[in-house]
Amino acid sequence: MSKPNVSIIITTYNRRIALAELLAALVEQTYQEFEVIIINDAGEKINDISALYPELDITILDLPENRYHVYARNKGIEKAAGELIMLMDDDDLPLPTHLEMMVKHIVDADLVYSDVEIVNYQETSEKRIPINYQLFAYHYDVDAMRRFSTYVPSGSVYRKSLHKEIGLFDESVRNYWDWDFFLRVVEKHRVKRVPIASVLYEFSETGDNQSKKLDNMRYYLDRLSVKHQLGNLPTKNFYLLLEEPDVKKRKAPSDRIWDGVTMPESRLGM
């Protein structure tokens, strides 16, 4: 088998329905030169789910103990064979043309990220049903990103060689590993926003998205601030960010390509 161009890194923990939908979304990608590395962070076994998608080149890393998502991503990076990395949370979804567009745009960049639709789902025993959604699209402004980060890691693609220069993801800032990674990359490398909302970012009222747990995040935000000399930062998630006056000024036009209804058909229960 030829070496994949892209390694898709997925961390997961007991989200079987969402993970099955994500794998279905990867089957639908118009660009298929990739491998999939799933790091199971000591959750229930997922081999039966991966077996439903034999057309995907999937490697599962079962961690013996729960070490949280940053450690898990780093283990996936160590296993990756591709020249490019695409990060995905297990409950987010790339639309069919997403990876093809990212590979196209990274030709003149080192890291590219897209806009997203923030989606609120209702989950049944077999699938997730979109209830409502809203656009998350903001101009790329490095100075402004030091105050409020609008970088969404899910679906972002970057050159694996960056890790040789700046190291792996920083576990010490846990919830803000992505903001920290962005700030380290942008210091010396080319970053590009792609103005297409080609990722569905889960932020359901009933879900357990990490960025909802604001009380647990203050400690790590302070560590991030000290590390990058960011000053006093408020603890915000994406929904709260949308109401910040400084963030509203950065709203940007984006190509919205999702119909708000269509979801990848997972093979669970088939």
Overview of this protein structure:
There is one protein chain. With 270 residues, this protein is of the alpha/beta class. The chain is 30% helix and 24% strand. The chain has ten helices and ten strands. Strands 1, 2, 3, 4, 5, 6, 7, 8, 9 and 10 form a ten-stranded mixed β-sheet that branches. The longest helix is centred in the C-terminal third of the chain and has 15 residues. The mean pLDDT is 93.
Question: What would a concise description of this structure say?
Answer:
By secondary structure, this protein is α/β, with parallel strands linked by helices. The protein has helices at residues 16-27, 47-50, 68-79, 98-105, 142-145, 162-166, 177-188, 214-228, 238-241, 245-248, and strands at 6-12, 34-40, 58-62, 84-89, 93-94, 111-123, 128-136, 157-159, 191-202, 255-256.
Order of helices and strands: EHEHEHEEHEEHEHHEHHHE
Task: Please tell me what the overall shape is.
Answer: globular
Class by SSE composition:
alpha/beta
Question: Helix amount, in percent?
Answer: 25-40%
- The low-confidence runs, each spanning 5 or more residues with pLDDT under 50, are none
Mean pLDDT, to the nearest integer, reads: 93
Sheet of most strands: 10 strands, mixed
Number of helices: 10
Alpha-carbon distance between the termini? 29 Å
- Whole-angstrom Rg: 17 Å
Task: Tell me the β content.
Answer: 15-25%
- The total strand number stands at 10
Spell out the key features of this protein.
alpha/beta; ten-stranded mixed β-sheet; 270 residues
Topology:
Elements: E1 6-12, H1 16-27, E2 34-40, H2 47-50, E3 58-62, H3 68-79, E4 84-89, E5 93-94, H4 98-105, E6 111-123, E7 128-136, H5 142-145, E8 157-159, H6 162-166, H7 177-188, E9 191-202, H8 214-228, H9 238-241, H10 245-248, E10 255-256
Parallel strand pairs: 1-2, 1-4, 2-3, 6-9, 9-10
Antiparallel strand pairs: 4-8, 5-9, 6-7, 6-8
